[in-house]
UniProtKB/TrEMBL annotation:
<comment type="similarity">
    <text>Belongs to the peptidase T1A family.</text>
</comment>
<dbReference type="GO" id="GO:0019773">
    <property type="term" value="C:proteasome core complex, alpha-subunit complex"/>
</dbReference>
<protein>
    <submittedName>
        <fullName>N-terminal nucleophile aminohydrolases superfamily protein</fullName>
    </submittedName>
</protein>
<keyword id="KW-0647">Proteasome</keyword>
<dbReference type="InterPro" id="IPR023332">
    <property type="entry name" value="Proteasome_alpha-type"/>
</dbReference>
<dbReference type="InterPro" id="IPR029055">
    <property type="entry name" value="Ntn_hydrolases_N"/>
</dbReference>
<dbReference type="Pfam" id="PF00227">
    <property type="entry name" value="Proteasome"/>
</dbReference>
<keyword id="KW-0378">Hydrolase</keyword>
<dbReference type="GO" id="GO:0051603">
    <property type="term" value="P:proteolysis involved in protein catabolic process"/>
</dbReference>
<dbReference type="InterPro" id="IPR001353">
    <property type="entry name" value="Proteasome_sua/b"/>
</dbReference>
<dbReference type="InterPro" id="IPR050115">
    <property type="entry name" value="Proteasome_alpha"/>
</dbReference>
<dbReference type="GO" id="GO:0016787">
    <property type="term" value="F:hydrolase activity"/>
</dbReference>
Length: 206
């Protein structure tokens, strides 16, 4: 197919009818040596919790230089699994979109709107010439006029709203924020071999 800038982009599909480029990006979020797939997000009645383990490739790496949870706006945060450089690019694009919305409408961007814009960028990179798909999956958590929000965005640009987006058995609809924090930590600990291998980073958005 031909893109808007005139470059050619060929989509090759696997036997599962998934583009190979998209499938490779999806695998990258699990295969990267810098990060692992262990992250969780839980929507409580009065807020949202996102948590992740933080693995360093070497004990010589400065821990402060590896940040897996970032703020996009004062009321929206994001955590990722996949390739760190790709995540930083998406963070910059999302922050720019949020700032443009604020300048135009004089109010914070809704969580759903920012997720939609970010997902559109990720989807465009699956079919544009001269670029590759982003090798990350995102959990976006925030609080707006609609209440607490939690979304998962995949490398394909697909996004879904979730109550909880990790393997867990203790979720309830009336869960309070403090309970969600403890559940997120326990969920991560169940997914690793030893407690010494994980470090929890929590973002509470109220």
């Amino acid at each position: 197919m031909q893109t808007r800038n005139g470059r050619q982009s060929v989509l090759v599909f696997s036997h599962h009818f998934q583009p190979f480029r998209e499938a490779s990006a999806d695998r990258a979020r699990f295969d990267s040596s810098w990060v692992g797939p262990n992250l969780s997000g839980i929507k409580a009645a009065n807020g949202v919790v996102i948590a992740t383990e933080k693995k360093l490739p070497s004990i010589l790496v400065d821990e402060a230089s590896v940040k897996k949870i970032q703020s996009l706006t004062p009321n929206i945060g994001v955590v990722y699994s996949g390739m760190g450089p790709d995540f930083r690019v998406l963070v910059r694009k999302s922050r720019k979109q949020a700032e443009q919305y604020h300048r135009l409408y004089k109010e914070p961007i809704p969580v759903t709107q920012l997720v939609r814009e970010t997902a559109a960028v990720m989807q465009e990179f699956t079919q544009s010439g001269g670029v590759r798909p982003f090798g990350v999956s995102l959990l976006v958590a925030g609080f707006d006029d609609s209440g607490p929000q939690l979304y998962q965005v995949d490398p394909s640009g697909s996004y879904f709203s979730w109550k909880a987006s990790a393997m867990g058995r203790m979720y309830t609809d009336d869960m309070e924020l403090d309970d969600a924090v403890h559940t997120a930590i326990l969920t991560l600990k169940e997914g690793v071999l030893t407690p010494a291998e994980i470090e929890d980073y929590l973002a509470e958005v109220e």
